[in-house]
Design brief:
With 214 residues, the protein is α/β, with parallel strands linked by helices. Helix content is 55%, strand content 15%. The chain has nine helices and eight strands. Bound molecules: adenosine monophosphate.
Length: 214
C-alpha cells in the first residue's frame, strides 16, 4: 500500500499513520518528524529549519524533496509507505509523482482527513507527547488515566514548539493557501479518498480502513 495522508495540521494524520503502520507493517514517513530530528541534532541545517518551523512556514520544496528522495531509497519501503505531511505544495506533489514514476512505485491513493476548524484548534493546542514513551496524547481528548499513566511514571507531557496559538494560526493559513491545492491535484487525477476525521481515534481509524479497502 502506497499512500499519502493529507489534512490540515491537527487533522490526525500522524496518529492515524501510526496505527496504519502497525497494522500494515509499512513505514510512516513524516517530513515533520524528520525535520524535528534534524533540529534536535543541532546541525546548521537544523538551526535554519527550526526558524522556519517555529514561524509556521514551510521549508523549501527542494529541501523536503531531498529528504523524501533519500528516505524512499531505503529498503523498508518495499511493501509500501504512508507519507504523512508530504506533499504540502503542488510543486511537491508533482515532484513526488516524478520520483515514484522513476521508482516504478505509483501511489495507490491520497487520503484527505477532513475535520472542522474548531476541532483542529483544540487538537493542536491540547496536543502533548509523553517524554517517556513518545505516546501522542491530548489534554482535552485523552482519558485522564492515560495522561496520569505518563506523569505517574515520572514522564512529562510535552507540547511541540510549534503548537502555540500564534504559530498554529500561521500553519493553518499556510495550509489553506499552499496545501489545499494539493487536494485538488489528487482529486483531478481521480485518486483522492476523503475520510471524516472528526471523532475518536478508533472511529476515525475504522473509517480510514473502510475507505482504503473500498
Ligand atoms: P508537521 O509535523 O507535519 O506538522 O510539520 C511541522 C513543520 O515542518 C511544518 O510546519 C513545516 O515548517 C515543516 N514541514 C513538514 N513537512 C513539510 C513539507 N512537506 N514541506 C515543507 N515544510 C514541511
Amino acid at each position: 500500500m502506497r499512500i499519502v495522508l493529507l489534512g490540515a495540521p491537527g487533522s490526525g494524520k500522524g496518529t492515524q499513520a501510526q496505527k496504519l503502520m502497525a497494522d500494515e507493517n509499512i513505514p510512516q514517513i513524516s517530513t515533520g518528524d524528520m525535520l524535528r530530528a534534524a533540529v534536535a541534532e543541532g546541525t546548521e541545517f537544523g538551526r535554519k529549519a527550526k526558524e522556519i518551523m517555529d514561524a509556521g512556514q514551510l521549508v523549501s520544496d527542494e529541501v523536503v524533496l531531498g529528504i523524501i528522495r533519500d528516505r524512499l531509497a531505503q529498503a523498508d519501503v518495499g511493501n509500501g509507505f504512508i507519507l504523512d505531511g508530504f506533499p504540502r505544495t503542488e510543486q511537491q506533489a508533482e515532484d513526488l509523482a516524478v520520483l515514484l514514476d522513476e521508482m516504478d512505485q505509483p501511489l495507490d491513493y491520497a487520503i484527505l482527513m477532513d475535520v472542522d476548524f474548531d476541532v483542529l484548534m483544540k487538537r493542536l493546542t491540547g496536543r502533548r507527547t509523553c517524554s517517556l514513551t513518545g505516546k501522542l496524547l491530548n489534554v482535552y481528548f485523552s482519558p485522564q488515566s492515560e495522561l496520569d499513566e505518563c506523569t505517574d511514571a515520572g514522564g512529562e507531557l510535552i507540547a511541540r514548539a510549534d503548537d502555540n496559538e500564534e504559530t498554529i494560526g500561521n500553519r493553518l493559513s499556510v495550509y489553506r493557501e499552499q496545501t489545499e491545492p494539493v487536494v485538488g491535484y489528487y482529486r483531478t487525477r481521480g485518486n483522492l479518498l476523503e475520510v471524516d476525521a472528526d471523532g475518536s481515534i478508533d472511529d476515525v481509524y475504522a473509517r480510514l480502513r473502510t475507505a482504503v479497502k473500498a
